[in-house]
Amino acid sequence: MITREITYFDNAGPQNTDDTIRLAVKRAKELGIKYIVVASVSGETGVKTARAFKGTGAKVVVVGHHVGFSKPGARELEERHIKELQELGAVIIEQTHALSGVERSISRRLGGASRVEAIAEALRTVVSVGTKVAVECSIMAADGGQVPVDGMTEIIAMGGTWPGVDTACVILPAHANNFFDLHVLEIVCMPRNKAKPAH
């Protein structure tokens, strides 16, 4: 039997970012985890994470929106953050989102929801939006070859209700084509009230 502490934030949102990163660093040190995956749209949260893990020996993988997420050809990661991430030795991934991708295009055009989008919605509803994001980013990091997928190496992945992060999970990652081999092993922190904050 294992006893672990879970932190529940009163509300979802970016006000939890610094605490989420701090708790992720703490749990990574406790478990000896050396791979950290974090969602970051502009790159600001990625920079905060890379700074926090500097000197720990952990590899930080920053997962941004795919190019064209907001409008065709648009990249949302900001150059100033990209530069600092590179200086801090973080890896940046921008690729098709694992839990939407082409299926989102089909549902937007033809209506209805795909099975993949149903998985994403279940994660949002049952656990938290940040858990859905953390799971998705861990798949993207695995498919990008940036985290081991050996069935043994655990990672910490962070996501949020946008912007920032409010959820951190210990995950056994898997590729998209082996999704059901992925396991959320622990919740480090998450919001208790999952309603998306107004911003």
Description:
It comes from Methanocella paludicola (strain DSM 17711 / JCM 13418 / NBRC 101707 / SANAE). This is Pyruvate kinase C-terminal domain-containing protein. The chain is an alpha/beta fold and 199 residues long. It has one domain: Pyruvate Kinase, Chain: A, domain 1 (3-Layer(aba) Sandwich). It contains six helices and seven strands, in the order E-H-E-H-E-H-E-H-H-H-E-E-E. The protein has a seven-stranded mixed β-sheet, sandwiched between helices. Strand 2, helix 2 and strand 3 form a beta-alpha-beta unit. Helix 1 runs parallel beside helix 2. The protein is globular, with a radius of gyration of 16 Å. The mean pLDDT is 92.
What does the overall shape look like?
globular
- pLDDT average, as an integer? 92
The assigned structural class equals alpha/beta
CATH A-level architecture: 3-Layer(aba) Sandwich
What order do the helices and strands follow? Answer: EHEHEHEHHHEEE
Query: What is the level 1 CATH name?
Result: Alpha Beta
CATH fold type: Pyruvate Kinase, Chain: A, domain 1
Tell how many strands the DSSP assignment holds: 7
| Rg from alpha-carbon coordinates | 16 Å
Number of domains: 1
Q: What spatial order of strands do you see in the largest sheet?
A: 1-7-6-5-2-3-4
Low-confidence blocks of residues? none
